[in-house]
Design goal:
Layout (H helix, E strand, L loop, with lengths): L6 H6 E6 L2 E6 L1 H8 L11 H13 L5 H11 L1 H15 L7 H9 L2 H7 L8 H24 L3 H7 L2
Antiparallel strand pairs: 1-2
């Protein structure tokens, strides 16, 4: 997968997964919104700054939440993909899931990630999100394994 380079790409582009091909599609509305804040200097403005800015604005009542949510959703596409790829590599022998399935399952926890992230107590937003997505995916795999009886503990519990 090609990594996003610029801040505009990181906060305005969404991942499209198709038959072992990945590409980034940019949302014009998000791009215009981010450009409305003035010229972006990559030497001064970091992605962490923008992530925290959009996260704070998203939690601010009365603001344009849908735009800030969109920027954060776009930003978490790449961490979610890498978390899904890592889980896929670990568990591909156990389940017949593709990276796309793990990605879709992982991104479903987006609202919970936004609600749980506390800038004062947490690491970088993308690292926090990656860990939460991995935990969510592993928990989902555990649930599926228990449902099918593939887990050793579930076999022991169900044998009596």
């Amino acid at each position: 997968m090609k990594k996003r380079e610029t801040l505009l790409e990181k906060f305005c582009c969404f991942l499209v997964l198709q038959q072992n091909r990945t590409e980034w599609n940019c949302d014009r509305r998000l791009r215009r919104n981010m450009e409305s804040y003035g010229p972006i200097d990559p030497n001064v403005d970091s992605e962490e700054y923008w992530a925290l800015f959009f996260q704070q604005q998203y939690q601010n009542p009365g603001s344009q939440n849908h735009l800030f949510r969109g920027h954060l959703y776009a930003y978490l596409q790449e961490p979610c993909y890498w978390a899904a790829a890592e889980i896929y590599q670990k568990y591909q022998a156990k389940l017949d899931y593709q990276i796309e399935d793990y990605f879709n399952e992982g991104i479903l926890g987006f609202e919970a990630i936004l609600a749980d992230f506390k800038p004062l107590f947490s690491t970088r937003f993308d690292n926090f999100a990656t860990q939460r997505i991995k935990y969510r995916l592993i928990d989902r795999i555990r649930q599926i394994s228990q449902a099918f009886g593939h887990n050793t503990w579930s076999l022991l519990l169900n044998s009596t």
